[in-house]
Amino acid sequence: MGVKIHILGKNGHDTVELSKEEAERLIEAEEGRYFIVDSKTKQILREIKLEEGQELVMIPIVSGG
Amino acid sequence: MKDFEDKSDWREVLFLPNGVFLVSYHRLTIKALKGYRSRLLNESIKLRREIGRLREKIKEKKAKLEEIESMLNKLTDDKVREIIEKEEQRKREAEIKAIEFLREYIGEEAFEQLEKKGYFEFTGADGKQYRITKDGRLCRKFGKYWHYMCVVYPEDLPLPDIIASVFTAVKNDPTFSKSSQKLEEVRNWE
């Protein structure tokens, strides 16, 4: 079941399927570099509480002024 | 010739096919003659040195040219061409995938607007109207006018991903542009 994560990056889009724990570790490690967006709701995840079967997108962060 | 023997300086007008010339003659003193000769000698030495230096430079440039041409030959090899084509193909595929993702992410309506008008509009998390152009630039509405905003992009990201990223930031972060808010406060105060 796991968690499906689409990662947007300079080398194209990668899709990885990880266990819930692995996905949480990945998100924790990349915090600050990516927006973690839920594929269904298209909302940024405010806290790292994942569910089995969840689909996420990691979008590189831009900053504005 | 007899006339000249009495004169030390004189001037004359010459009519030549390319124009009218005023020519003046001065008799050189021995001192001036020696000085002039010495100046010419120095100048000839200087020119010889300069020619020597230029020859050295030409030699260096030739060696560099040979090195560059040999590198260029290596870089125009079929193997390199193959690598470039492969990379370009990968980029094209990534771009297509990124466009497909963007279409789904921002919604069909916004995507159509982006394709037809070159931008799409939406309301940001701060309740203001925003516009993202097809080249990834962000505008915010101030009264009647649209102002371009400064956005720092991640390096080497495909354009559709940049648009998705800008959209996510503005849509989710009400404090995305603090400086713009300050600008608006100043305008309202004025």
Q: How would you explain this protein's 3D organization?
A:
The complex is a heterodimer of chains A (65) and B (190). Chain A is of the alpha+beta class. Chain A has a single domain, classed as Ubiquitin-like (UB roll), CATH 3.10.20. Chain A contains one helix and five strands. Chain B has 190 residues and is of the alpha+beta class. Chain B has a domain at 90-176. In chain B, strand 5 and strand 6 form a beta hairpin. Chain B starts with 8 loop residues before the first strand and ends with a helix. Strand 5 (63-64) of chain A pairs antiparallel with strand 7 of chain B, so a sheet runs across the interface.
Features:
heterodimer; A: 65 residues; alpha+beta; Ubiquitin-like (UB roll); four-stranded mixed beta sheet; 1 helix; B: 190 residues; four-stranded antiparallel beta sheet
